[in-house]
Recover the amino acids of this structure.
């Protein structure tokens, strides 16, 4: 995870280097530099560490570490420093709110880096992942998932009217497209895809499992979202994914849980007024 604001800013600044390179008749030769310094601009040294950071990022993106790339990055840093010095000279950094915004960007960047370091220093063991996978697998085995459709309306009377139309031969999917208030499924004829009944709110799930294939609810189903007419299209055994298919997601879940606990402990120990 990387902080996008700073990346975009650097990209915009470094883009100036392309203009410089295209319009320069000849790139000046670099003067001998102090060890640990890649260039000096108006007396201010640019440390080697900055070039190293950029080089590491480029290599991680697939570029080759060679002299040409290093020269380009050096020119990018010089362009950035020239522009930065001009910005300071103009007093722009002292404009209203700019210092606060700059501090906020810096803190967010550091926090993103800290989070990445936390993940590295708190690895999730293979045993933990496999144990969690085994638990999930045992819970899903021998269960069924349901292919459902629904029509969501605001009033019970509207739901009853839809059921009456269905009894007269109206097409469920057509009515869903015309009348359903659910933005996620209305355009698909009310199709909700394959899901476990437990993934729905309780009244909806309970009504769904009582239906047989092709049936729809004869009375409206009320939930916190409104009134539903529910139809069961099909039922099939749950297909349990292989361990390697879900390993990354399990790892992310554990990492999130670890960090949430760490954060909760920090808040508990902090004096917040």
């Amino acid at each position: 995870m990387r902080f996008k604001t700073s990346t975009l800013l650097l990209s915009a600044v470094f883009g100036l280097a392309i203009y410089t390179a295209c319009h320069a008749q000849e790139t000046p030769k670099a003067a001998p530099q102090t060890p640990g310094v890649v260039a000096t601009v108006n007396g201010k040294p640019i440390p080697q560490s900055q070039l190293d950071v950029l080089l590491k990022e480029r290599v991680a993106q697939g570029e080759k570490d060679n002299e040409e790339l290093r020269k380009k990055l050096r020119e990018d840093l010089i362009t950035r420093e020239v522009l930065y010095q001009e910005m300071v000279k103009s007093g722009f950094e002292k404009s209203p709110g700019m210092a606060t915004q700059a501090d906020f960007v810096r803190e967010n960047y550091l926090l993103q880096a800290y989070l990445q370091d936390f993940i590295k220093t708190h690895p999730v063991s293979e045993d933990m992942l496999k144990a969690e996978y085994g638990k999930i697998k045992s819970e899903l085995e021998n269960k069924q998932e349901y292919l459902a459709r629904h029509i969501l309306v605001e009033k019970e009377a509207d739901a009853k009217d839809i059921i009456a139309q269905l009894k007269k031969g109206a097409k469920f999917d057509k009515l869903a497209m015309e009348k359903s208030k659910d933005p996620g499924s209305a355009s698909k004829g009310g199709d909700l895809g394959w899901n476990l009944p437990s993934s729905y709110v309780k009244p909806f799930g309970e009504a769904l499992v009582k239906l047989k294939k092709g049936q729809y609810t004869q009375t409206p189903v009320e939930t916190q979202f409104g009134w539903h007419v529910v139809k069961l299209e099909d039922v099939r055994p749950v297909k349990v994914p292989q361990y390697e298919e879900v390993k990354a997601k399990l790892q992310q879940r554990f990492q999130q849980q670890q960090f949430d606990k760490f954060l909760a402990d920090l808040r508990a120990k902090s004096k917040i007024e």
Observations:
- The first strand starts at residue 37 and ends at 41.
- The radius of gyration is 30 Å.
- The CA atoms of residues 14 and 76 lie 5 Å apart.
